[in-house]
Amino acid sequence: MVSNTEDKLFQAVSYCILAIVGLAAVIPLLYVFSVSLTPFAEVLRHGGYVLFPKEITFNAYQKLIGTSTIPRSLGVTVYITVVGTAINLILTTLVAYPLSRKYLPGRSAFLVMVVFTLLFSGGIIPTYLVVKATGLIDSLWALILPTAVSSFNVLIMKSFFEQLPEELFESARMDGAREFRILVQLTVPLSLPVMITVGLFYAVGHWNSFFSAIMYVTDRTLFPLQVVVREILMLSQQPLENAEDQVPTVTMQMAAVIFASAPILAVYPFLQKHFTKGMLLGSIKG
């Protein structure tokens, strides 16, 4: 009886904590979304805090889409996300697969090099000098190539590859398949969970690309979405003569945040199952 009571108490406390954490995550998002759809006059009447708008207007979104800056920056972000993620997955796979094979000559030395980069990096200035020396400044490749391979993701994918049954590889070799064919036709199809997991890591990183853009890009036509959103958020609110007709800065800010976050929020639920499975399976072995 005591054990049963303790279990119920533990569950009740756990549910309360999870509810508080969930509300702490949902309420700010709901606030941003509501303000972006609420006429500014109603926002003022409620002291700037609206969770459930009584009136809905899409003026802020229409103004964002109507400008040339937001659609152009969205196109840049989509491009670096799609192309960058594809390059990331190809290179990460080509690094992780050989490291997962225990018969690779010098495997331990290569692993030490990969882990070393997790602890130490070249630094901002040397990295900038390398990017500049390779002629990538003011190009979209400056937002893709410097982060083409992540050591952390390499280790995740390597651990996943090591858990695949060795008998499959031996059988393929007996049939005359070479390593590259085994990788493309056997390993990759069996590694869909970790591919989606690592791909999501890379895609979110490219979609939220900000620091690399302000470091390597000065051409405003090449600014990704997050840089443009940051500029909108930094704008000071101007006095409005007619709060009903004009789209104020605060409403534009909230609409810009939702505009930048919505694609990732929409895609993640469809990948959550593979994401969780890939993280669990890829973290069992070191």
UniProtKB/TrEMBL annotation:
Subcellular localization, as worded in the UniProt entry? Cell membrane
Keyword Cell membrane part of the UniProt annotation: yes
Pfam families on file: BPD_transp_1 (PF00528)
Give an example GO cellular component term for this record: plasma membrane
Major localisation: membrane
Q: Which keywords describe this protein according to UniProt? A: Cell membrane, Membrane, Transmembrane, Transmembrane helix, Transport
Which ranges does the record mark as transmembrane?
Answer: 12-33, 76-97, 109-129, 141-161, 182-204, 250-271
The segment(s) forming the ABC transmembrane type-1 domain are 74-271
Q: Name one GO biological process term.
A: transmembrane transport
Membrane topology, record value: Multi-pass membrane protein
Q: Which PANTHER family match?
A: ABC TRANSPORTER PERMEASE PROTEIN MG189-RELATED-RELATED, POLYGALACTURONAN_RHAMNOGALACTURONAN TRANSPORT SYSTEM PERMEASE PROTEIN YTCP
Q: Which family does it belong to?
A: Belongs to the binding-protein-dependent transport system permease family.
What is the protein named? L-arabinose transport system permease protein AraQ
Provide the species name: Paenibacillus solanacearum
